Amino acid sequence: MTTTITRLFDSHSDAKHAVTELEALGVPHSDISILGNDPDHVGDHDDGVDHAGDVDRGVKTGAAIGGVGGLLAGLGLLAIPGIGPIVAAGWLATTLAGAGLGAAGGAATGTIVGALTDAGHSSDDAGVYAEGVRRGSTLVSARVADAHADAAEVVLNKYGAVTATDRGRDYASNGWSGYDASAPAYTLDEMQAERSRYGRRTDEI
Q1: InterPro entries attached here (predicted)?
Q2: Which of 25, 115, 139, 145 is the most buried (most CB within 10 A)?
Q3: What one-character-per-residue DSSP string does 125-155 give?
């Protein structure tokens, strides 16, 4: 049996380090995903991104966007409705690009909420994770064998992972009532302000 563990990171660097350690733990590349609304990289890589709001099915890949090997070497650009351009790799990126979804698939093409609920998360948690990406956080999701779930949690927590419960509580305390895919995408300044609000470091570890 496997468990899907998904967390938010307020530092894109932290998320990348967590992915690298999950791979070292033995989690296959095909079972890890990273989605990052990363102002430091997305804003400088516009090629192949559909700014009209549709998912760009021609994912632009390249290690130059942030990875040097493994899953991170396949980071590419997607544009997500209500969120804007993100860097992404792994099974969630493939799902968001519309690959592998049959007529009976539970995930709505192009939505993070649909993809995460299809993977087994509650709609409330999926909404928090989507809102986190919208606000500039980086999402890491891993399908992990139950026997290795505790070790994976240790890896994620080492780099400041945030659960949907904790972040959802923070959002609600500031008036947020749920994810709205029709809301405008955050600007780079707004995303940086969100990162500062939660006090996560942005330097490389």
Answers
A1: Low_temp-induced_all0457
A2: 115
A3: HHHHHHHHHHTT-EEEEEEEEGGGHHHHHHH
Strand order in the sheet with 84-90: 2-9, 138-145, 32-36, 84-90, 76-80, 60-61
Q: Is residue 140 part of a domain?
A: yes
Tell me whether residue 104 is in a domain: yes
Closest by CA position to 89, among listed 188, 26, 23, 187: 23
Structural domain including 172 reads: 2-40+75-194
Residue 165 belongs to a domain: yes
Count of domains observed in the chain = 1
Taking only the tens of pLDDT, the chain with its 205 residues reads 889 999 999 998 999 999 999 999 999 988 999 999 865 554 444 433 333 333 333 344 333 333 446 888 778 888 787 788 888 899 888 888 764 333 233 334 458 898 899 889 999 999 999 999 999 999 999 999 998 899 999 999 999 999 999 999 999 999 999 999 888 889 889 988 888 888 654 443 3
Distance CA 169, CA 98 (A): 31
Question: What is the distance, to the nearest Å, from the Cα of residue 190 to the centroid of all Cα atoms in its chain?
Answer: 18
CA distance 124 to 122: 5
